[in-house]
Each structure stands twice: as structure tokens, then as C-alpha cells.
Design goal:
Length: 189
């Protein structure tokens, strides 16, 4: 009896999985920067060392995702207040299927991301450097503040669309102007 290994995922599936992981990474960075902005964009303190240690005692295996989820709820409310809720998506409110994909992998898969974020907590410029790397060098439209339409919902699963969102956030944090990039209508492929 021969055992065959499961088929390798195709390049498209691997790219999508990579982009879904990028969403989680981008969320964590934006949340940490938003919490530590002056003034804060949302009033949570989950993505600092004290907040992580507190959650680590309650949720030893999933504390990081708990921190991202809890701070993400506050960020979602702020974004929804700026961009609305009907027919639009943003980094903290994705179509339901995509949202489930972001939280699907086991928390063990986050070890590298957790170590990277933890090393940089409290070091704004270090966090900004990583955000710049995720956003094609921090290139983004001028951050005029408020809601900023940056594309169609289908771009949410593409590296270029996520880099565009990262660029807007990068400029917004650099210029100290809360800006909320969003995508409109359509379907997410």
C-alpha cells in the first residue's frame, strides 16, 4: 500500500495565504502605532509589553491574536466612524470569508511575528521602518486625514492593495494625521 502526500497548493493559493498573513502583520503594526500615537487613534493598550503580558497570562497560546483582535475591535469602530459600514471594507473590517482566513492559522504560526513586534514595541521608528517595508518604502498618497478611498475590494487579497493601504497608514503616522484607507464594493477573490 502506497501513501501519497497531499497535493502541493498551487502558486495562487500560496500567494493568497502569504497575503492573508500580510494582513495580520499589517494589522498588528497599525494597531501598535495607533495605540502609541500622540494623541492615540484608539484608546486601547493591548499592543504594548504590559498589555501583551496581561493577555499572555489569560491566553498563553493565543495572547497575540487576542491582543490584535481586541485592539482591532476599537480600531474597527474608529474606521467605521470615518468611512461608514455599507459597501466598504478596511483593514479592520474585511469580508467575512477573508476575516475567517486571517484568524484560521494556528497561533503557533505567529511566533516569528510575535517576536518581531515585541522587539519593536515602544520603538516607534522601528515599527515605522517595518511598516515602510510592507508598503513599498512608505510610498503613499499624502495623508490629508480622514477617510481615503484607495481601491476596490478585490485588492484586499493582493500584495499591491495591501502595500497601498500600508503606504497611506505610513504617511498618516509620519504626518500625525489619522487617515483611514478603505476599499469599495465588489467581491474579494
Amino acid at each position: 500500500m502506497t501513501h501519497s502526500s497531499p497535493p502541493e497548493p498551487d502558486t495562487g493559493e500560496r500567494q493568497r495565504a502569504s497575503n492573508v498573513a500580510l494582513i495580520l502583520r499589517l494589522r498588528a503594526l497599525v494597531l501598535a502605532l495607533g495605540e502609541s500615537a500622540d494623541p492615540p487613534w484608539w484608546k486601547t493598550e493591548f499592543l504594548n509589553e504590559t498589555g501583551l503580558r496581561f493577555l499572555e497570562r489569560l491566553y498563553p497560546r493565543s495572547f497575540f491574536r487576542a491582543a490584535v483582535h481586541a485592539a482591532g475591535k476599537a480600531a474597527c469602530e474608529v474606521h467605521d466612524g470615518a468611512v461608514g459600514r455599507v459597501g466598504v471594507y478596511h483593514l479592520f473590517r474585511l469580508p467575512e470569508g477573508l476575516e475567517m482566513e486571517v484568524y484560521e492559522p494556528s497561533p503557533d504560526a505567529d511566533e516569528e511575528l510575535i517576536a518581531e513586534i515585541r522587539r519593536r514595541l515602544g520603538k516607534r521608528e522601528d515599527l515605522m521602518e517595518v511598516l515602510a517595508d510592507l508598503s513599498a518604502g512608505g510610498k503613499g498618497d499624502d495623508a490629508t486625514g480622514g477617510a481615503r478611498l484607495i481601491g476596490q475590494a478585490g485588492e484586499l487579497t493582493k500584495a499591491a492593495g495591501l502595500a497601498k493601504a500600508g503606504g497611506v497608514y505610513f504617511r498618516a503616522f509620519r504626518e500625525g494625521k489619522p487617515t483611514f484607507p478603505y476599499f469599495t464594493g465588489g467581491t474579494v477573490g
